[in-house]
Amino acid sequence: MNINNDLEKLIENLPFFLQEQLNKHNVKDQLIEIVLDLGRRPEARFISGTQYLSQKLISWQDIDYTTKRISKFSNENRAGIERTLHRISCIRNRQFLINGLTCRVGRAVFGIISVIRDLLESEKSILILGKPGVGKTTIIREIARVLADEMQKRVIIIDTSNEIAGDSDISHPGIGRARRMQVAKTEFQHQVMIEAVENHMPQVIIVDEIGTELEVLAARTIAEKGVQLVGTTHGNCLENLIKNPSLVDLIGGIQYVTLSDDEAKRRGTQKSILERKAYPAFEIIIEINDKNSWIIHEDVQKSVDLLLRGNFTTRQIRQFYLTEKIKIKCNQTQNYQNSLITYSNSLNPSFLTTNQNWILRNQLKDRKFLKLQTKKLIIYPYSLSSNLLKEVLLKMGLTFTLTNEIKKASLIIGLKKNLKQNFKLINLAKQKNIPIYGLNQVNLYQITKLFQLINQLNVE
């Protein structure tokens, strides 16, 4: 992984006393941003934390010295340095005079997206989620270079704030052969997105910080034209996107649907439920909350549907470090508010929980689980219809025996509210180390889901 930050070009535009401090700093390569506020000591923010650079307070002259050496500030109060990726943002007083500067270090990091190379080759649209400052822009800059140079795609970058390709009419080499369309004002971003498709025949469109309903509509229009999209937006996870009314259309939108009595009973849900309205504009979502560990949703359509139903959704965790190989893990998470199944590993009623991460951790750690297709299940049904249970198990092609002796059972299945009240059953199961599964409601749908879950959690 190679890093090009042109840090010297940023430092040379600062007041002399700050240049001296930064040039001799032993970890300046970890610098994130420099903060200059009138009447305060200058701060340098590193990966490890914040440090003061001097005892001297920032004066009007210090701020004026820096602003005269950089480009003009846009309507969004952002400026840059010619042929670099650095961004300088200003704070103004009531008279519109600049009394504060935030100088963010821009870096072109080559090789950072090796962990998702296979996703780029799939030619599916990718949305990157993350908090401000987590590195989303750095990632899509490298994605643009890889797609244009290594995969020979026609790539166009919609560069609204000049953060992706630098503050100059000549694009920064960090984007490779990708072309860049600058946006005069933020409110015109959606128009430039459509213009790029209509005028320049791109195979891939790169957009940073999708944030308005018009930009979301433009993204959907581009996706429907068959152009691959790579974009970013603010948010911690997929659930945040579902709850954001301005952005939810990126993943298909949601609507209330009223089910018939029979359908609601079959699903085991209320009559009024939330469902996805349309196909997602982005087929893959990457959640970045840690620079070395990314969460991947490879099938956004399926993940959204499962989240809305309160079921389990599968996601990947891809980890990478400079000194180690890439690791890909797969786990399951569950919507806490509308879970179907509960399980107690400790067999204590107070631990009957819907926390699926806790379930996975304890099951995989403490016991080798049943492999349903190859092993015979001996089931003790508690407060369940034996005929209903048989119907589900036969349809799933499982080998099983129903027993009325707990000591012979390999697992216990019952209604959650009844299981909680039977302390004698729980204590006996604990002594025999027999797992207990609880259902919130008893119907074909939920019993089927229960055995599908057990099958998914199997460990050889």
Q: Beta-sheet strand percentage?
A: 25-35%
Report, as a whole number of angstroms, the end-to-end distance: 37 Å
- Can you give the helix content as a percent range? 25-40%
Q: Tally of extended strands?
A: 24
Identify the CATH architecture of the largest domain.
3-Layer(aba) Sandwich
At the fold tier of CATH, the topology name of the largest domain is Rossmann fold
Strand order of the largest sheet: 11-10-12-13-9-16-17-18-19
Shape: elongated
What is the name of the CATH class of the largest domain? Answer: Alpha Beta
Class by alpha and beta content: alpha/beta
Largest sheet: 9 strands, mixed
Low-confidence stretches: 335-374
Mean pLDDT: 82
Number of domains: 3
Rg, Cα atoms, Å = 28 Å
Number of helices: 15
The CATH H-level superfamily of the largest domain is P-loop containing nucleotide triphosphate hydrolases
Keywords: ATP-binding, Chloroplast, Nucleotide-binding, Plastid
Protein name: AAA+ ATPase domain-containing protein
InterPro entries: AAA+_ATPase, P-loop_NTPase, PTPase_dom, Spore_III_AA_AAA+_ATPase
GO molecular function, one term: ATP binding
